[in-house]
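Our platform keeps sequence and structure together, in a single record for each protein. Such a record has a labelled line for the sequence and another for the backbone structure tokens. The tokens are whole numbers drawn from a learned vocabulary of local backbone shapes. The remainder of this section carries one protein's record, kept here as part of the documentation:
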Amino acid sequence: MFFRTIAVWLLGIPLTVALFPFALLGCLVDRTGRLTHRVGSLWCRAVLRLSGVRVVIEGRENLPQGQKPCVFAVNHKGAFDIPVLHAYLPYDFKWIAKKSLFYIPLVGWAMWLAGYIPIDRRLGGRAYIKSINDAIEKVKKGISVIIFPEGTRHPGRGLLPFKKGGFVIATRGGADVVPVAISGTENIMKKGSLLIRPATVRVNIGGPISPEGLDDRALCETTRKRLEELLKEI
């Protein structure tokens, strides 16, 4: 455990510095942020390898063909959910993330360059609505978005109540919801700790759920039921 922690912090920082120029170059070459996103995927794979994290993915065949824009709805287990999905979900997408993360040197700057969507929770409802509207515009332009409908990490069993706001992105953006269940990230780095523990993470991708004929609440409930089923299969 201590070896992994030392490896991640000692080698991860110079790796971040080395890859940042490529993230910047990717933004200059491709304004969509896709190339920068791929540099981020490489960085996440390296961090996961240093951490001793093994990732097992099931259900790749359920991903929409041709990078069709969709809304990925994922349960939130731990801090490593994002690196795992960024590294191993074979799809271009954008995150909705706390604005404070965008100010982290190099990593946060790369998030800006990749076109991820910040939300400033200090501004309350106004900020939330703006982030949702930004995400809707992304989807309408053919870009997929990831949401964590629980709103916060939940390392325990089951799911927290879902916030329906993220499903507005799907209904107003005209995009399918793809439920994704993740398990095991809660064992890598406990909340409030910097210690890294090797772990096996399992990701289970479900079939797309069409928003056609469903309002925000119905789509939210349907997705929740499907996520519960996917978690039981892991």
In short: The chain has seven helices and seven strands.
